[in-house]
């Protein structure tokens, strides 16, 4: 996959995640906040509970999550409508990010 194609896919996924985080904050009493940073980075701040970082990694052609529970690497979907998948465990990016948020919120 060419870098340009990866960046377009990753930026679309990060925009989708940003919209989902905004909806989640509106619908719940979230005890965290998030900020979009330059270069394809979403930083979730849990105050004393630390941070979760979601970012695109162009060299590896992956989206990465760094959280208290570990580091996770996600490959682009093979086809339209499929989720980004963890390169080791096979879980979707959405499942993993939801689990990380729940773990760090408690």
Can you tell me about this structure?
The protein has 106 residues and is of the alpha+beta class. The protein has one domain: Metal Transport, Frataxin, Chain A (2-Layer Sandwich), CATH 3.30.920.10. The protein has helices spanning 3-27, 93-105; strands at residues 33-37, 41-45, 51-57, 62-67, 70-75, 85-86. A six-stranded antiparallel β-sheet has the order 1-2-3-4-5-6, covered by helices on one side. β2 (41-45) and β3 (51-57) form a beta hairpin. The mean pLDDT is 93.
Largest beta sheet: what is the strand line-up?
A: 1-2-3-4-5-6
Unreliable spans: none
Classified in CATH, the superfamily is Frataxin/CyaY
Number of strands: 6
| Structural class based on helices, strands and sheet pairing | alpha+beta
* Average pLDDT reading: 93
**CATH T-level topology:** Metal Transport, Frataxin, Chain A
Helix run count: 2
What string, H for helix and E for strand, traces the elements in order?
A: HEEEEEEH
Q: How much is the radius of gyration in Å?
A: 13 Å
Please identify, by name, the CATH architecture.
Answer: 2-Layer Sandwich
Overall tally of structural domains: 1
